[in-house]
């Protein structure tokens, strides 16, 4: 009986692993929902009470304003604010100048989508659909090609070089390299930029600045914090340069973060772990061998290239020695 159960589990290991993964993911979603509900619900109720108190106080102090007229004004103000138009007296900046539009297109094509600025006209909404329909796949293709090129210089070539030069175990060195790269990326993409945003956005704390960096570079883009949109935080003379710098930071930061993620995904340890949850390959042995050879072609070519570089000095020395021997015999 025990052997039969063990044999059954062995035959269906992939399906059982996937079922375990699915159950774990569902529990993770439930845990996240429970934590957010427990943490955020009291703050929401307190904010509602404060807002209602402020509203009643305003109506008490301004008896000439009816509740219905105030409701109508607030509805129109909130509707305009959803389209990025504020009714505040100090909000005089245009949302659709060239630099702001460039910032908008970068958030659309990278699927960040803060939602603080949206097309107002029907023509703009239609163009956004068709523009994204072509632009998002092209952006993914561009980012994929760029990340693969950077991976050769930053990850694959250094790991292969040190493996051949010093005889370091490739899986161990790849793990150390990925850890070091992650630390550097966390410092340059999150911790230091958060300090800069904390200085340039006086209403943001360091935690809020760090939160913005993470939400933006992971393309979550909730839109609750958008630099340059807080009123009077940046002088008007520098607002254009500030927006352009943020656009470059988001694009370059996204590329760097993808390089780190790709480096971690290529770790042999993670590949073995992911393979547990994949469906077992039932292909013939010859087809499997061809797939493995195809996937390792790039690595073999790189290894051969590095080997040629490492042995070129010894080959040159042997050639010089042969020429000297030929001269002596002649």
UniProtKB/TrEMBL annotation:
Cellular localization per UniProt: Apical cell membrane; Cell membrane; Cell projection, Dendrite; Cytoplasmic vesicle
Transmembrane segments: 16-36, 129-152, 173-197, 209-228, 240-261
The Potassium channel domain, residue ranges: 93-150, 187-264
Entry keywords, A to Z: Cell membrane, Cell projection, Cytoplasmic vesicle, Disulfide bond, Endosome, Glycoprotein, Ion channel, Ion transport, Isopeptide bond, Membrane, Potassium, Potassium channel, Potassium transport, Synapse, Transmembrane, Transmembrane helix, Transport, Ubl conjugation
GO cellular component: apical plasma membrane; dendrite; perikaryon; recycling endosome; synaptic membrane
GO molecular function: outward rectifier potassium channel activity; potassium ion leak channel activity
Entries under InterPro entries matching the protein: 2pore_dom_K_chnl, 2pore_dom_K_chnl_TASK, 2pore_dom_K_chnl_TWIK, 2pore_dom_K_chnl_TWIK1, K_chnl_dom
Glycosylated residue positions: 90
Chief location of this protein within or outside the cell: membrane
Membrane topology classification: Multi-pass membrane protein
Catalytic activity: chloride(in) = chloride(out); L-glutamate(out) = L-glutamate(in); Cs(+)(in) = Cs(+)(out); K(+)(in) = K(+)(out)
Organism domain of life: Eukaryota
Biological-process GO terms, alphabetical: stabilization of membrane potential
SUPFAM superfamilies: Voltage-gated potassium channels (SSF81324)
Subunit structure, as described in the record: Homodimer; disulfide-linked. Heterodimer with KCNK2; disulfide-linked. In astrocytes, forms mostly heterodimeric potassium channels with KCNK2, with only a minor proportion of functional channels containing homodimeric KCNK1. Interacts with KCNK3 and KCNK9, forming functional heterodimeric channels. Interacts with GNG4. Identified in a complex with PSD and ARF6; interacts only with PSD that is bound to ARF6. Interacts with UBE2I.
Entry's family note: Belongs to the two pore domain potassium channel (TC 1.A.1.8) family.
Record-given protein name: Potassium channel subfamily K member
Species per Swiss-Prot/TrEMBL record: Oncorhynchus mykiss
């Amino acid at each position: 009986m025990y052997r039969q159960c063990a044999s059954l589990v062995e035959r269906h290991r992939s399906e059982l692993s996937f079922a375990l993964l699915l159950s774990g993911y569902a529990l993770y979603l439930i845990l996240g929902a429970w934590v957010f509900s427990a943490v955020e619900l009291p703050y929401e109720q307190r904010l509602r009470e404060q807002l209602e108190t402020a509203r009643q106080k305003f109506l008490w102090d301004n008896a000439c304003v009816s509740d219905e007229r105030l409701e109508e004004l607030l509805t129109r103000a909130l509707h305009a604010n959803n389209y990025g138009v504020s009714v505040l007296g100090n909000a005089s900046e245009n949302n659709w100048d060239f630099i702001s539009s460039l910032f908008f297109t970068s958030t659309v094509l990278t699927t960040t989508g803060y939602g603080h600025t949206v097309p107002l006209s029907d023509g703009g909404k239609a163009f956004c659909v068709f523009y994204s329909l072509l632009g998002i796949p092209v952006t993914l293709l561009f980012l994929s090609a760029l990340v693969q090129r950077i991976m050769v210089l930053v990850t694959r070539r250094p790991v292969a070089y040190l493996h051949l030069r010093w005889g370091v175990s490739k899986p161990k060195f790849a793990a150390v390299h990925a850890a070091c790269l992650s630390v550097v990326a966390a410092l340059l993409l999150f911790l230091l930029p958060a300090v800069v945003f904390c200085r340039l956005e006086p209403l943001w704390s360091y935690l809020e600045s760090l939160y913005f960096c993470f939400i933006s570079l992971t393309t979550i883009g909730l839109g609750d914090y958008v630099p340059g949109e807080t009123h009077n935080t940046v002088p008007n003379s520098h607002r254009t340069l500030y927006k352009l710098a943020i656009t470059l930071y988001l694009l370059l930061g996204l590329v760097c973060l993808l390089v780190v993620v790709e480096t971690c995904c290529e770790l042999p340890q993670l590949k073995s772990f992911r393979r547990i949850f994949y469906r077992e390959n039932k292909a013939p042995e010859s087809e499997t061998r061809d797939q493995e050879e195809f996937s390792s072609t790039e690595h073999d070519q790189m290894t051969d290239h590095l080997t040629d570089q490492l042995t070129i000095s010894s080959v040159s020395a042997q050639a010089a020695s042969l020429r000297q021997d030929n001269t002596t015999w002649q």
